[in-house]
Amino acid sequence: MPTPCAQLTLAEVEAIAREAHAEQRDKAGRPYTEHLAAVAEGVRIRGGSDEQIAAAWLHDAVEDGALSERWLADAALPQQVKEMVLAVSKRDGEDLRSYTRRILDTPGALLIKESDLAHNADPARLAVLEPATRTRLTEKYAQVRALLGLTPGEPPAEQSVQANTAED
Fold first, then answer.
1. Which of 35, 98, 110, 111 is spaced 20 to 30 A from 43 at the CA atom?
2. Residue 28 pLDDT
3. What is the spatial distance between Cα 167 and Cα 152, in angstroms, rounded to a whole number?
């Protein structure tokens, strides 16, 4: 009987994500790993679990083709991490309603997407883009936030539910 392999540590997940995206740049020409680090840190400061932080490091890996779905399926990661990564990975031709519904239906995924949107919509980050791109992305991020039920200054619904349950 094969022995189960040890789960990847958070530091190992970070190193894998950094290596997978090493050559990638964001729309402003910055190293893409800066975005991954910001999303992971955003999840951490919002009270996310180690599993959510790991998923944040990997949140764009499958969508961008930096790592394959097969790699993710075979990786020594908790199933919850794999599910969150797949939930936040937009699929070719997928409409926003289906995409956001999958995020809402996957425990833990909303916090990752909230952190991703927060970094993507950072005014300093958007300011360096061409005006048309900035406008298009600002509108897109606002639409996704609305579909997810996220409004500025409010925690994700799943955190509110957890907080309310803890007070009962």
1. 98
2. 86
3. 24
Chain centroid, CA 158 distance in Å: 15
What size, in residues, is the chain? 168
In the predicted model, what is the mean pLDDT of the chain? 89
Per-residue pLDDT, averaged over 119-132, amounts to 93
| 56-98 confidence digits (pLDDT tens) | 999 999 999 999 999 999 999 999 999 999 999 999 999 999 9
Residue in this structure with the two tokens 């997940």, named with its chain if needed: 13
Residues sharing a CB contact under 8 Å with residue 115, sequence separation 6 or more, in sequence order: 38, 39, 40, 42, 43, 46, 48, 56
Model pTM?
0.86
Q: Which residues pair with 25 in a beta bridge?
A: 31
User: How far is the C-alpha of 62 from the C-alpha of 81, rounded, in Å?
Assistant: 13
